[in-house]
Amino acid sequence: MVNIKDNFLQSIGNTPLIKLKAASEITGCNIYGKAEYLNPGGSVKDRAALALIKDAEEKKLISKGGMIVEGTAGNTGIGLCLLGNSLGYKTTIVMNDNQTQEKKDTLINIGADLRLVPPKPYSDDGNYVKVAGRLAEELKNSNNYGVVWANQFDNTANAKGHYETTGPEIWDQTEGKVDGFVCASGTGGTIGGISSFLKEKNKDVKIYLSDPAGSALYNFIENGELKSEGGSITEGIGSSRVTANFAEAKIDGAFSIDDHESLPLLYNLIKEEGLSLGTSCGVNIAGAIRLGKLIGPGKTIVTILCDKSDKYNSKMFNKKFLQEKGLPTPSWI
Ligand code: PMP
Q1: What is the mean pLDDT of the chain?
Q2: Contact yes or no for 8/82 (Cβ under 8 A)
Q3: CA-based R_g, the chain, Å
Q4: Measuring from each residue's beta carbon to the nearest atom of ligand 1, which residues come in under 6 Å?
Q5: How would residue 2 be classed by pLDDT, with cut points 50, 70 and 90?
Q6: Known catalytic residue at 271
Q7: CA of 187 to the centre of ligand 1 (A)
Q8: Which of 15, 99, 169, 264 lies 20 to 30 A from 202 at CA?
Q9: Apex 124 CA angle, 221 and 282, nearest 5
Q10: DSSP 194
């Protein structure tokens, strides 16, 4: 019997690398996407969910019947809820109300207690991350088995999870021949953990942040100043601040990617390569192409395929929505 997993937890990680044909051809590099959408909850954030729950268990903050509370763009919530269901934990999720209906529906349908809040900057007490932290405190007295705020942005167990799993997987899968790694940052867990591992293995591996327009991190990396310009329809990535997980990242440079650059890449991948990927993947792949042009040809570059397009149908394939924003549309819709 080959490749049999005992449970949800064991089926997280060990995702394949998929060669991205057009991106590789444009740059003369081998550009690979790590197919994180194949995780059981459907995104890279299953890894963070596992790392954060393991951390809470190791610290004896939670036992069966306990509750996990988290502020999330959706994917971490889905991972925490499904993993929580499999381990006997309840999940309460705080999310901005401007995230796609698909993610809200998924969270409700898998049994999360979903609390929607209006989007507020991090400096505001009503910011979803701060609401989640306070809610966890308030709920502590209501549950004898432990109520834990997962705190994916500033609990570095998140980056540690990627340092221990995703980083080594990329190193092994490329047989140590990886020349560049590029991805966007939401919490910074992915880029924090992977960059730390790869730089430890080979300090010459180039690590680049691919930052969506509207995020302040591009300017922070390039000019040392947290400053944002423009905006993006992507979800789950970009930041106005340096989180504890992002602070761990070993970064050589950054690219700022707008939706005009990333969306056509996603539509072409569907049409030409059969890969139907979520909005943050467009930013990641655009970044991989930019890095390929910078350090290539002949280099091996890896990026992350975070989730699939099905969570963004109401944005990515909504002609009216896209046209109102002056954005490219898929030719077949
Ligand atoms: N892409 C998607 C779709 C996400 O949900 C997230 C997490 N919010 C990211 C990318 C960014 O990953 P990280 O939080 O590890 O920086």
Answers
A1: 98
A2: yes
A3: 19
A4: 43-45, 73, 75, 184-190, 236-237, 278, 280, 306-307
A5: confident
A6: no
A7: 7
A8: 15
A9: 45
A10: H
